[in-house]
Amino acid sequence: MTTAAFGAQxxxxxxxxxxxxxxxxVMSLVVFTGLAGIxxxxxxxxPMVAFAALxxxxxxxxxxxxxxxxxxxxxxxxxTRTATRPIPLGRISREEALSFGWWIAAASVxxxxxxxxxxxxxxxxxxxxxxxxIYTLWLKRRTPQNIVIGGLAGALPPAIGWAAxxxxxxxxxxxxxxxxxxxxxxxFWALALYRSDDYARxxxxxxPVVNGKAHTxxxxxxYSLLLLPLGLAPALIGLGGPLYAAAALAFGGWLVADAILVxxxxxxxxxxxxxxxxxxxxxxxxxxxxxxxxERLIGIAPLHxxxxx
Length: 309
Description:
This protein is mostly helical. The chain has two domains: 140 residues, UbiA prenyltransferase (Tetracycline Repressor, domain 2); 140 residues, Four Helix Bundle (Hemerythrin (Met), subunit A) (Up-down Bundle). Helices cover 73% and strands 0% of the residues. Helix 5 runs antiparallel to helix 6 and helix 8 packs antiparallel against helix 9.
């Protein structure tokens, strides 16, 4: 057990400590995929409504992060990767983080309902409750499928952004949700491969800990293969254009190629291929959603106008 797990509060909490509770790096990716949903949705939305939607998505994601840190504070102190978070270091108490998180969560949903629309607010509320209640409090400590099922929460922002513009949903935003959903397992299992000792020490049943690294590598390869055609789907239904199709094919192929390297990995101590795949997976998701946004902003027409919008 690390010293940080029993860290005494040595100074008053700063703004930076509370900002760290929001998991800003995770929040930025969530906001970016939510922005894609807003930009590619049909119709027009006032810029202030779009800004309000993005702000609420950001606050909802931050609240989820804070609540996750609060409920997981007992195991965060046991893992090298999370031992320097504000609660294990004793800079913020678990109770303060819980209050902070729930207040922001409630405010984000209320603001979404007031300034955007009811469907977007309902989806945001579901996302927060699913991440905290289903993933953090139930799945994470009970099943190696925690990331697979729990990934739904992180996958929903494109649908929230779409709903903010249209007031409804269709198959198109759900395909964007599916891309992020199927991206989550290879992304986090790559991390789990080279952080398996951390997870084992904390008693978290991640795939490499429960089923072994060889099984995890095979699962990463399978999900990466599934992502290749799924990533191309937006171009096939009229959501993406030729630039998107090229990006999805190139980055999807790159992801599969590196998943093959992970599958063949023999260095189970350093796991260099898994570390590389973790970084590439972030680039993959960013590239796909950035290309969708760029095409819409510069006016590149979709390859096909489908009836999925």
